[in-house]
Design brief:
single chain, Rossmann fold, six-stranded mixed beta sheet, about 25% helix
Length: about 160
């Protein structure tokens, strides 16, 4: 069983619901699975191809659907990459590297490399706090880093 979920049925329900949300993404987009050192990473890409890159990293116990209310505005001025964090209930690999290692920084560098991004602005929420080591690993790649306090409305946990 996937270590992200409490049950196989819960995993199935969350993934099905997430897929339905993605079908209603508010702007034109590409939904991609890209290879990284941590396994497959799911990314929703929106906005003009020639615009500066903006990476959106969701919080814990979430996925890229949390950005659906914001992406319409961001995609006007940026090439937006909504990245499902590894080890969370999205479509990326179900691995959870140690937060004390540089694994998340290397993983994010893999994402930069896949999309040929030299530098980008990053907006993150909660778990994105694991990403600042990326700045120290390759400071020339991170133009700006903003942590959001956006809340997942509701209570309880995923099934």
């Amino acid at each position: 069983m996937n270590p992200i979920f409490k049950s196989s049925e819960g995993e199935r329900l969350v993934r099905e619901r997430y897929q339905r949300f993605l079908e209603h993404w508010p702007v034109p987009n590409e939904q991609l699975h890209i290879p990284t050192t941590q396994g497959s990473t799911f990314v929703v890409v929106s906005g003009p191809k020639e615009a500066p890159p903006l990476l959106l990293l969701h919080g814990s116990a979430a996925n890229s659907a949390m950005w659906m209310g914001d992406v319409r505005i961001f995609a006007r001025a940026f090439r937006v990459y909504c990245i499902d964090m590894i080890g969370e209930p999205g479509f990326s690999a179900a691995v959870r590297p140690s937060l004390r290692s540089d694994a998340y920084a290397v993983w994010l560098d893999d994402v930069f490399a896949h999309f040929s991004i030299d530098s980008a602005s990053i907006v993150g929420s909660m778990k994105a706090m694991t990403v600042p080591p990326a700045e120290s690993l390759a400071p020339e790649t991170c133009f700006g880093f903003q942590v959001s306090a956006k809340s997942n409305r509701g209570s309880g946990s995923a099934s």
